[in-house]
Specification:
Blueprint (H helix, E strand, L loop, with lengths): L3 E3 L13 E10 L5 E6 L9 E2 L2 E3 L6 H13 L1 E16 L2 E15 L6 E7 L14 H9 L5
Parallel strand pairs: 2-7
Antiparallel strand pairs: 1-6, 2-5, 3-4, 3-8, 6-7
Amino acid sequence: MKSVAGDPAHLPMSVGTPQFLPVLAGLIFDSQGRILLARRRPELSNGGKWEFPGGKLLPDETPEACLAREIEEELGLAIEVLRPFAVVNHRLEGLNLLLLAYLCRVRGGRMKLTDHDRVLWLKPPAVLELPLSEADVPIAEKLAREPISL
């Protein structure tokens, strides 16, 4: 199944056999308009691929709280979660990965890497030059064609 990025306000939801795994992705911008990309450690799932950092939504957790928690745990950064940007439904190993991408800003912290071995700050169009995780490609395409105003 092809991954598709959509407008979060028009998210199609289906009920039935496929299970959805809600995952958040932070589109984290710095003061120079660059976005943070992180490369997964080789020994982890999707190893060696670049991604917009984030993680799984826990029960009773808001998307904003999830992103703040995951980014602090995995990267040591404090972020401000601004607003939804895209939704991707990506079929992965028998379930639908429901990837919710939010625009974010760095607020502080000291970079540390736990699940990643490298990070880059890039202007949005350059993101498509990296070997991205498949679910992140539609988000990167949308970033490349739509100007971002934080």
